[in-house]
Specification:
The complex is a heterodimer of chains A (398) and B (138).
Chain A lengths: L4 E3 L9 H5 L5 E4 L2 E4 L9 H5 L5 E3 L12 E5 L12 H12 L4 E3 L2 H14 L7 E2 L4 H10 L13 H17 L6 E7 L2 H9 L8 E4 H5 L14 H4 L6 H6 L4 E5 L1 H12 L8 E5 L15 H14 L12 H4 L17 H16 L14 H10 L15
Parallel strand pairs in A: 5-6, 5-8, 7-11, 8-9, 10-11
Antiparallel strand pairs in A: 1-4, 2-3
Helix pairs in contact in A: 5-11, 14-15
Chain B lengths: L2 E8 L8 H13 L3 H21 L2 E8 L3 E8 L7 H4 L9 H4 L8 H8 L2 E7 L2 E9 L2
Antiparallel strand pairs in B: 1-2, 2-3, 3-5, 4-5
Classes of the chains: A alpha/beta (398), B alpha+beta (138).
Chain lengths: 398, 138
């Protein structure tokens, strides 16, 4: 199988930008080319956003696949509202997607607004600090780095998955077809959703996934479809929506994966108390900051606000949603990705060696060696990924 | 085999308060310790680090890990705790306004450490306070 994220060696110049932006230290520069260590990756997309050589490549599905289904449904991401100049634009996008071969185009605001009450209801059960699971990168960060916080994750699927199940049932009834005759495609605004769909195709309700950035280039606004959005749900294009629509003071909103990491750490050591829900998004500004948005997240936020002002309050979502559509069950721990060795004694030995190497490094974190910090370099030497000679700034011998 | 880490902690350096504990957490994770044990250790190291920031003239934390035990020794250079028994009471706090304004100084530091460490020792004089914490690795 092809890697889900690939690096074009002919484009990559080994500049270290992506490596330095990675919150998981999952990237190294080897022989002047970036290398991604997948087991650490949480698909936040920072590397893709930081790369100025367009060297990162992700593989979207082929439109030819649409012919496998009798009816094709495109699900627009909630972040789409960060790209609209006016209310009619949504109809233009919908009409353009139909030219690509989709029969139905739906958006997510109804699903988001429905989930607000489910979540508020659920967090009443316990007085722990729950973590919102709308953003799969946040969920991954928890499973890899904070396995002890797994029980803080809400047991709910991300909204695109809920939409996949709900609309598959809805359109199979509408067209009187079998559920597998309906093709559900998600137009992804971010790497995180994109990869989750790619990786789990046999398990989830989405059949195909396309990049928003690929589609948005060719939007025509000649034909206009009627697409209605639920106001309360549109807020979820940006961070802080949950806090705003629920008017709840016990909700902490955080965006940007490094900030999320810090907040999770605070939850872990109980530094944060009296917070019932952490609304966390990997991207700056929430979903509007998605990897494939091609718009500044703050401009996109402003557009969302403008769009909300144009919306009628009385649009409601009246498609039936069952608990089986949104319950995800338990998340699996990926404990161990960050350890030096499976054997405890061996890990201590390695740690000691790392400290010895670090002592002779300049500790300026210049990254010229191709590791994200002097400490990471010392780890890489111990792991055998690098040799001490790779440090160009080293004083003294080994 | 023993591996040790040393961290300097400075008086009223709220900007970096918690950084040492973050690093401790990172290293314990790399060694592959049980996450629940890591949490207990980090809760203690965080409380200890904050105590040094808030109450002392500055000090250092030394973490040492060997095959059977994790030790954390926190020392500062004064001014010391006049009445340790009182300081061990939950909710008793002598934190200045500058600390309370930042949400610290709830009077739970030492009690929390005692609760989360397998062994807890404290000694204090005007020349400084020393807190020794240890956890057994099962």
């Amino acid at each position: 199988m092809k890697n889900l994220v690939d690096i074009h060696n002919e484009r990559c110049i080994g500049c270290t930008r992506c490596m330095r932006s990675c919150p998981m230290e999952a990237i190294r520069i080897v022989d002047n080319k970036a290398q991604l260590f997948k087991e650490r990756c949480i698909y936040c997309g920072n590397c893709i956003i930081e790369c100025h050589k367009n060297a990162y490549k992700v593989y979207s599905d082929s439109f030819a696949n649409l012919s496998k289904y009798k009816i094709n449904v495109a699900i627009l991401p909630i972040a789409i509202y960060g790209l609209l100049n006016n209310k009619d634009d949504l109809g233009g996008i919908s009409a353009t997607l139909k030219d690509y071969g989709f029969d139905e185009v739906v958006e997510l605001s109804g699903i988001y607004s429905f989930m607000v009450d489910q979540i508020l209801d659920y967090i009443k059960n316990d007085d722990k600090t729950y973590i919102l699971t709308h953003c799969p990168s946040v969920t991954r960060l928890v499973t890899k780095k904070y396995p002890q916080l797994l029980h803080h994750l809400l047991p709910f699927s991300p909204p695109f998955e809920i939409a996949g199940k709900v609309y598959r049932r809805f359109f199979s009834e509408k067209y009187n077809l079998q559920e597998d005759e309906i093709g559900i495609s998600y137009i992804s605004e971010c790497l995180s959703n994109f990869i989750v769909i790619k990786e789990n195709k046999d398990k989830i309700a989405i059949d195909q996934v396309f990049l928003l950035s690929d589609l948005i280039r060719n939007i025509s606004y000649k034909k206009i479809d009627e697409v209605k959005a639920v106001k309360k749900g549109v807020y979820f294009a940006k961070v802080g929506a949950f806090k705003y629509v629920s008017n709840n003071r016990d909700i902490l909103a955080v965006d940007g994966i490094r900030n999320v990491d810090t907040v999770l750490e605070h939850i872990d050591i109980r530094k944060i108390k009296n917070v019932r829900l952490v609304e966390a998004y990997s991207c700056t500004g929430g979903c509007v900051g998605g990897t494939f948005m091609q718009e500044n997240p703050f401009v996109a936020k402003w557009r969302v606000n403008e769009f909300i002002n144009e919306l009628d309050d009385d649009v409601t979502f009246d498609i039936n949603i069952e608990p089986i559509d949104y319950y995800a069950g338990e998340f699996e721990s990926e404990e161990g990705v960050l350890t030096l060795s499976n054997d405890f004694r061996e890990a201590i030995k390695k740690m000691k060696r790392i400290n010895e190497i670090l002592a002779i490094l300049p500790n300026i974190d210049c990254c010229a060696c191709g590791s994200p910090s002097c400490r990471a370099f010392a780890e890489d030497v111990v792991k055998g990924l690098k040799t001490i000679e790779d440090c160009r700034m080293r004083k003294g011998g080994t | 085999m023993t591996v040790t880490f040393e961290f300097n902690v400075y008086h009223e350096d709220y900007h970096n308060a918690g950084v040492a504990s973050s690093e401790i957490k990172k290293y314990l994770t790399q060694i592959g310790l049980n996450p629940q044990l890591i949490r207990r250790i980090v809760i203690c190291s965080y409380e200890a680090e904050m105590n040094v920031v808030i109450h002392s003239y500055g000090g250092k934390m030394v973490l040492s890990i060997d095959d059977n035990e994790i030790k954390l020794e926190v020392t500062d250079t004064g001014p010391g705790i006049p009445d340790i028994e009182l300081a061990m009471q939950e909710g008793y706090s002598t934190a200045p306004l500058s600390a309370r304004e930042r949400g610290f100084g709830a009077g739970m530091g030492l009690p929390n450490m005692k609760k989360n460490a397998d062994t807890f020792e404290i000694a204090s004089s005007p020349q400084g306070t020393i807190v020794r914490l240890a956890w057994v690795i099962l």
